Amino acid sequence: MIDKIIEQTEEFVRNQLGEDSTGHDWFHVDRVRRNAIHISKAEQQGDPFIIEMAALLHDIPDEKLNYSAEAGRQKLESFMETIPLKEAEKNHIREIIFSISYKGGHGSKLSSVEAEIVQDADRLDAIGAIGIARAFAYGGKKGQSIYDPTIMVRETMSQEEYRKGKSTSIHHFYEKLLKLKDLLNTATAIQMAEPRQLMMQSFLEQFYREWNGQQS
């Protein structure tokens, strides 16, 4: 039964996010799923099924991918009604999904190791080479410029400011992406983040060299 539920969930997510162009497509979801499974095995912690389900569904109710937060929540609920799980299992999956997002940097304490693992897997996909590509895909979709040195980096911001305030794709590295490594929960994820962090730092150094017209 578990395999059938996973297959049903995969199909649902592919249909919902398969053609997303903001970096939240099926391939992102699948990478998060695979990272989460890897972290769970390496740490020898967590319920593998709950982790996989939460990873697969984590972007379904995301406000920025739906007309509204309520519309996203309802989309998730409609799907949850179609799968034969105990209510406690469904509640655990919901709790993970609604607790792991960044929300402008105002994180809250997670209530389970499964949530910590899925959050780490999601954050790993926001950094490194993939993270760089996703940052510019999302910035372009939002209509943000690549970079504007006259705009100040926002050190603190509300959730509303994080979602809708004026920024650029390069600013996003300082406002979120470079902070993620220090917010990871598990030793495995921290180790996986090291080369990704170096990749982003190297990219930014090269970006500024080219921006300023340096020849090498």
UniProtKB/TrEMBL annotation:
Domain of life: Bacteria
A Pfam family: HD
SMART domains: HDc
Gene3D superfamilies in the record: 1.20.58.1910, HD-domain/PDEase-like (1.10.472.50)
Domain HD/PDEase: 21-136
Stretches of the chain forming a coiled coil according to its record: none
Protein known as: HD domain-containing protein
Source organism of this protein record: Neobacillus rhizophilus
